[in-house]
């Protein structure tokens, strides 16, 4: 079992408050919280008996009979939220942890009952820095380069002190775990399994998602149209989102395609990366890009088990940075840039200090053409430009060009 960055954040949050932790099923929410709050009572509302007990419990007795507790799948009993609100507002409740995998239902209950009272956290599949931890007793190290970029954006300070290559015994585990992460994603249950069993687990998860997670969002009489849409969307990871094309290829209306994509987003299967633009009339693409959040699930749904394509590598890097920003509640904002004239940058990071550009290349050697768009972006943003990074595959850290453009291997950036 691997420890999580979120555990470090929860420790810093202290032992007083109302916390909600959401995320896709099987990302380790229950394990994390039961390890972090082993002294609290645990109730899983997947159980009809548990739901019935909490349903009939009066609000004025909640603090006395329940007290500080972990409530899993909290969205399945709506009355829980009002009772926690009553106990908290009366000053009788000091700590309550709510868990759930249905983002839309949980946030609806929060808006109705606990708005302004509860802190929200998200737990994603394991990040590379978490895969490198040894057991639950050691907290994962913060990825120095990635946290430095998203918090300070000081490329020269970060990269000039990095040796071109680490010693093989230090670098090897990072490359090995990066390869695993690209191929299998970050679902904790996969770690002890053989490759054959990992494929089976992912297939089973895909089926369970349709039968359980999707049913929390919608009542679909026929799951096959959604399954077809899900597969078509997976094949478009890393591409501009085109609802008309998705609808045409799956035999759905455009409105249905929009609704199905929203289901995937709300259930933590995909992310929509928005385009970067400084004003609404700028000559840039205004359509978001679609990325799958877990590369193991992506490979499962596309059936592309062999090799690592450029699209898969890009999806992995984007999802890792996305997970880091969301997990740490960073002030950094994440976009992509594409103009109608053809200038394109894979990632634009808007930090409190300025703008960073990232290009993602599935090769170790970087050519001049690989950072031409970064130089154009730098010219466009002038003093707001902090620097650019070409994220390479198993290459080295080196300075490429002014204005402040570097290259760094993905396993170094993300670990």
Shape: globular
* Class based on secondary structure composition and strand pairing: alpha/beta
Largest sheet: 6 strands, mixed
Strand elements, count = 14
For the largest beta sheet, what order do the strands appear in spatially?
Answer: 9-10-11-12-14-13
> In whole angstroms, how far apart are the ends?
18 Å
**Helix share, percent:** 40-55%
Folded structure, characterized:
The chain is of the alpha/beta class and 415 residues long. It has two domains: 119 residues, Rossmann fold, CATH 3.40.50.300; 270 residues, no CATH class. The protein has 18 helices and 14 strands. The radius of gyration is 22 Å and the shape is globular.
Can I get a quick summary?
This protein has 415 residues and is of the alpha/beta class.
Keywords:
415 residues, five-stranded parallel β-sheet, 14 strands, Rossmann fold, alpha/beta, 18 helices
List the helices and strands and how they pair.
Blueprint: H1 5-13, E1 17-22, H2 29-36, E2 41-44, H3 48-56, H4 62-65, E3 69-72, H5 79-89, E4 95-100, H6 103-114, E5 118-122, H7 128-131, H8 144-151, H9 155-159, H10 168-184, H11 195-217, H12 224-234, E6 239-240, H13 243-250, H14 254-266, E7 270-273, E8 289-292, H15 295-302, H16 310-328, E9 333-338, E10 344-351, E11 354-360, H17 372-381, E12 385-392, E13 398-401, E14 405-409, H18 410-413
Parallel strand pairs: 1-4, 1-5, 2-3, 3-4, 11-12, 12-14
Antiparallel strand pairs: 6-8, 7-8, 9-10, 10-11, 13-14
Helix pairs in contact: 5-6, 10-15, 11-15, 12-13, 12-14, 13-14
């Amino acid at each position: 079992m691997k420890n999580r960055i979120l555990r470090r954040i929860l420790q810093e949050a202290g032992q007083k408050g109302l916390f909600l932790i959401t995320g896709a099923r099987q990302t380790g929410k229950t394990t994390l919280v039961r390890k972090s709050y082993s002294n609290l009572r645990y109730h899983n509302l997947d159980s009809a008996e548990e739901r019935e007990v909490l349903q009939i419990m009066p609000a004025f007795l909640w603090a006395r009979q329940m007290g500080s507790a972990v409530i899993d799948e909290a969205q399945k009993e709506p009355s829980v939220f009002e009772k926690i609100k009553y106990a908290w507002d009366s000053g009788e409740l000091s700590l309550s942890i709510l868990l759930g995998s249905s983002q839309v239902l949980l946030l609806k209950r929060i808006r109705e009952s606990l708005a302004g009272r509860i802190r929200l956290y998200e737990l994603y599949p394991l990040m590379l820095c978490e895969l490198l931890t040894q057991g639950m007793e050691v907290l994962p190290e913060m990825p120095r380069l990635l946290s430095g970029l998203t918090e300070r954006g000081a490329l020269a300070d970060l990269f000039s002190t990095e040796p071109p290559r680490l010693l093989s015994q230090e670098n090897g585990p990072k490359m090995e775990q990066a390869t695993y992460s690209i191929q299998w994603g970050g679902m904790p249950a996969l770690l002890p399994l053989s490759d054959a069993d990992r494929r089976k687990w992912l297939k089973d998860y895909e089926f369970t998602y349709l039968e359980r997670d999707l049913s929390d969002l919608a009542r679909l009489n026929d799951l096959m149209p959604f399954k077809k849409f899900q597969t078509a969307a997976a094949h478009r990871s890393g591409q501009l989102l085109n609802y008309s094309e998705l609808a045409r290829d799956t035999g759905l209306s455009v409105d249905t395609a929009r609704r199905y994509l929203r289901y995937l987003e709300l259930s933590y299967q995909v992310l929509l990366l928005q385009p970067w633009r400084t004003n609404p009339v700028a000559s840039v693409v205004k359509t978001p890009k679609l990325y799958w959040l877990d590369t193991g699930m992506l490979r499962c749904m596309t059936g592309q088990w062999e090799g690592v394509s450029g699209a898969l590598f890009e999806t992995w890097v984007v999802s890792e940075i996305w997970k880091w920003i969301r997990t740490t509640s960073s002030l950094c904002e994440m976009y992509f840039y594409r103009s109608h004239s053809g200038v394109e940058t894979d990632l634009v990071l808007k930090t409190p200090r300025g703008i960073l550009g990232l290009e993602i290349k599935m090769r170790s050697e970087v050519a001049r053409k690989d950072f031409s768009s970064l130089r154009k972006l730098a010219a466009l943003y002038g003093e707001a430009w902090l620097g650019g990074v070409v994220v390479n595959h198993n290459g080295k850290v080196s300075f490429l060009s002014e204005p402040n453009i570097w290259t760094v291997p993905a396993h170094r950036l993300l670990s």
